[in-house]
Write a structure and sequence with these properties.
Number of strands: 5
Order of helices and strands: EHEHEHEHEH
Low-confidence stretches: none
CATH architecture of the domain at 1-78: 3-Layer(aba) Sandwich
Radius of gyration: 12 Å
CATH topology of the domain at 1-78: Rossmann fold
Largest sheet: 5 strands, parallel
CATH class of the domain at 1-78: Alpha Beta
Number of helices: 5
Distance between the termini: 12 Å
Mean pLDDT: 94
Structural class: alpha/beta
Length: 117
């Protein structure tokens, strides 16, 4: 099952990729919201794990663009503490769940299995 990880911080992508690969997921990466939209269209991943705050295009704008193209897209937002307003907006825009950084690996896996079931 293919998962798209979107984060401008390479170390965060690497950490998530390692975790998801260990669980048997195929992982693709994007470094910003614009790249996320392009890769989503090309790859149609089962789920997207997307940071909210990124250069070029924010996670919220990318979420809107992806949902406009595919209303059934499964997107989980990942954000730092203190971004509660953005998290609420993301859920209203169609995100299926959100994970707060720094996250516990078990929280990521629980969220994924919930969203993908």
């Amino acid at each position: 099952m293919r998962i798209l990880i979107v984060d401008d911080a390479a170390f965060m992508r690497l950490r998530l990729k390692k975790l998801l690969n260990q669980e048997g997921y195929e992982v693709e990466e994007a470094g910003n919201g614009q790249e996320a939209v392009e890769k989503y269209e090309a790859l149609r991943p089962a789920c997207v794990l997307m940071d909210i705050t990124m250069p070029e295009m924010s996670g919220l704008d990318a979420l809107k663009a992806i949902k406009a193209k595919d209303p059934n897209a499964k997107v989980i937002m990942v954000s730092a503490l203190g971004q509660q307003a953005m998290v609420i907006q993301a859920i209203q825009e169609g995100a299926r769940d959100f994970i707060v950084k720094p996250y516990e690996p078990a929280r990521v896996l629980t969220s994924l299995s919930k969203v993908l079931s």
